[in-house]
Amino acid sequence: MARAVRFYETGGPEVMKWEAAEVGEPGPGEVRITHHAVGLNFADTYFRTGYYPSPMPAGMGVEGAGVITAVGAGLDGFHPGDRVTYTGSPLGAYSTERVMPASHLIALPDTIEFDTAAAMTMRGLTTAYLLRRIWPLSAGDTVLLHAAAGGVGLIFTQWARLLGIKVIGTVSSQRKAQVAREHGCDDVIVYTEEDVAQRVRELTAGEGVPVVFDSIGQSTVPTSLDCLSRRGLLVCFGTASGPIPPIDAFSLAAKGSLYVTRPALADYIADPAERAELAAELFGHVAAGDITIDINQRYSLDDAVTAHRDLEAGTSVGSSVFTC
């Protein structure tokens, strides 16, 4: 019988339960998929804690890769035996099997392993829209990226180098600084040892950077604003440290007519054609070896509690996956 992680109340990692699950047959527009690997993302903790509301009881996880075992009536484009990956709602990726809407699926090339796909679909597509859709970045530009040794960070720095974009990254330790440098980060600031805004000004001849990519949120947004050049953009794409604090609109003018955006991946992959374009570019870079996906933490699905504790402790480097 299939098994899945569910939670019946919000709270700490201990609220997740590993239990038997009835899968059933796919209806119109749906497929049944057997997972080979499942992604572990910080966003998963937002659902578990209630920061992202969800009806109870709920499954866990929004990213997985595997093989289609059945398709619903009238569904075109996917067939039993197809290799696929996905990211997006509804919850339920932490499972051995599931039925889900086919609209979220992306065909997975044979050149990419299942665990690689589960480690990169959300992170890679996030990087794709950050670098290719948010701001007209050009070769020679310099940007600031927080969490440069994280799952998105390591993909972002490699992709930025391919585009000729210089990255100043922030990390919490010298160990993570070394990892970030190895993956293409041009300058690394250990924020526990240096003043980030001051160091950014030193590295940019006092100008600051045109764009800051901030996935940390509460603890970093004020500093991020101080790192921007005139008419620069703060991209708040995550809240690992907590909700983004209120931003006074007048302060944006006082700091140089700054912009702030809070994008969501769902709005950049909602259009199937745009999603296919971003995925093709990502898969192409990975298949060619131009971007490597570091999976540094692997867990079994029945160890989801430990995985979430490690994730929230900030000890993870690169990507994490569950193997099925």
TrEMBL record:
Q: What is an example of a Pfam family matching this protein?
A: ADH_zinc_N
GO cellular component labels = cytosol
Record keywords: NADP, Oxidoreductase
Q: Which residues form the Enoyl reductase (ER) domain?
A: 11-322
Question: The organism sits in which domain of life?
Answer: Bacteria
A single Gene Ontology MF term assigned here is:
NADPH binding
Q: Gene3D superfamilies of this UniProt entry?
A: Medium-chain alcohol dehydrogenases, catalytic domain, NAD(P)-binding Rossmann-like Domain
Q: Which NCBIfam families match?
A: PRK10754.1 (NF008024)
This protein is called what? Quinone oxidoreductase
Species: Gordonia asplenii
Source taxonomy:
Bacteria, Bacillati, Actinomycetota, Actinomycetes, Mycobacteriales
